[in-house]
Amino acid sequence: MAAPAVPCYSPGFKKPPAVLRLKRKRLRRSEPAASASPPCGAPPRAPSAPARRNPFSSLENAPRAASIPRPPERARPPPLAGEPSSAVPFWQLLEPVCDDKPALRPEPADRTDVLALTNDLHLPVAALQVPSSPRHEFPADWSIKTRVLFMSSQPFTWTEHLKAQEEAQGFAQHCRATETNLPQSIQEPKLSTELRCAFQQSLVYWLHPSLPWLQMFPRIGADRKLVGKASPWSQDEGLQQVLMSEWSVSFTSLYNLLRAKLCPYFYVCSYQFTVLFRAAGLAGSDVITAVISPTTRGLREAMRSEGIEFSLPLVEESRTRKQKSSDVSLETEDVNSLNTDNSTEDGEEPAPSDDDDEASFSWLEEMGVQDKVKKPDAISIKLRKEKHEVNVDHKPESLALVKGTNTFTLLNFLINCKSLVAVAGPQAGLPPTLLSPVAFRGGTMQTLKARSISAKARVQLAYKDISSLEIVGPVMPHTLHSLTMLLKSAQRGAFSAVLYTHEPTAVFNTSPDNASPALNKESIHKDLPACGLHPKTLDQLSQCPTLGKYSIRFLDMKDYAYTWKS
User: Fold this and answer.
1) Where do the structural domains in the chain lie, given as residue ranges?
2) Cβ neighbours around 419 below 10 Å, total
3) How does pLDDT run across 533-555, given as a tens digit for each residue?
4) pLDDT tens digits, residue range 62-109?
5) b/e per residue, 85-99, with b = 16+ CB within 10 A?
6) Residues ≥6 apart with Cβ < 8 Å to 391
7) Sequence-ordered list of residues with C-beta below 8 angstroms from that of 462, at least 6 positions apart, any chain
């Protein structure tokens, strides 16, 4: 018996998944038109009839879903030498996981790209913006690096598996400030005990306070990493006083070493700002200097109230630059009007004077309506005067420079400053971190983490074997220079580096006021004989800073000559 006719019913109708399966089957067969037969009970379809469109698909994706085949999966590269077959390739840890990731560019089947940071992060090593000509030395960088990645065609196996004697010798050389002079090129770095000991020596730094379960650097923006960590002092005022008392002793010890020129420099890292103390003779200054960044108007006012004399080098430099440009372009105009017109540039405004405020309301008296118009109160006038200072808060331009005997006053100010320690949050009650290249009272010896990896890197359109050495931790200026001296000999004068800067410290490369471009090297070495630095490192750090408020991001050495990008 025939089935009853149902209006608007098509016995050949199929659900969308069935239609797609049918079309895939047609594509796989050699003769799709002849092999596709109508389902049972359905009327035969004419060969010339157009394909029925899926009513549940949009107009945009219907043709593509039916006609474009699924892209092939990317071939998995073979494991590295010495890597177990079940291990996950390193390149999969650097790239986001995607099942149907299209191949946008041709890639070899044996890709093991450890340098995804030179490709995925768009940092090609071969495309560095270099200075006008290669130099035999790179400029001093006073910022703290959180991570440094060295790359070279020569292996870094000489940094692996140090023997117990080599490690102990490296620690002893650091404590005794032993000077290591290596030849220009080492043929077998892995067999050079002197090189391996010097490598261990360059990784040492000193820290206070030392709490193994907490990461003590960086401190600015570290609240998220410290959430959930044990902090028994946060609710114990007695324990907080003990921590601050020990911290004050360590801080004073470091400053005394600095003043005696037995310590070249050290950092004070709080949860709000960082302070860099430098000995006389460094950074082109013949007196002790301290730079603070970032600062706020409240902190600067507190320093002024304690009698600390300081300057804002970047603000003064910007004002001087604007003044010169104004004098050249508009020589006939009044200087005060020029400052008013250009006050909005660089986020600065000239501080208005009391005479200007009185003159601004004198026209009301001339019209006889001074009693009918409400004048701004003293607080509003004061806020308007201080607006130019508030505009630079928390910015690199807020860098404050303290020189000479004022640094000792700054020491006492920081010890007694209530806002130096957080009163709430994960860092509540935790004293600032002290970082030093030499030992001091209460300091704990720490070592940077080093790891070497061998893989392949993309250079232009080809791949080549490359080795990398990763250094993680607070890499201070002397450490960076010491490592480059070792790599110059071990890697035969050819390597490159990607430097990750702790951004609040990049502005420390600003040149101090009245800095001498070239101090007498003989007097520097005479005054700083036992500061713990290699003579070549001391020469570099004694130069006047030239990077301004920026830091070195890329460093490249070829044929024993440096190029860099900041």
Assistant:
1) 125-181+448-510+545-565, 223-312+394-444
2) 14
3) 999 999 999 999 999 999 999 99
4) 444 444 445 554 544 444 444 443 343 444 434 333 333 333 333 333
5) eeeebbbeeeeeeee
6) 347, 348, 349
7) none
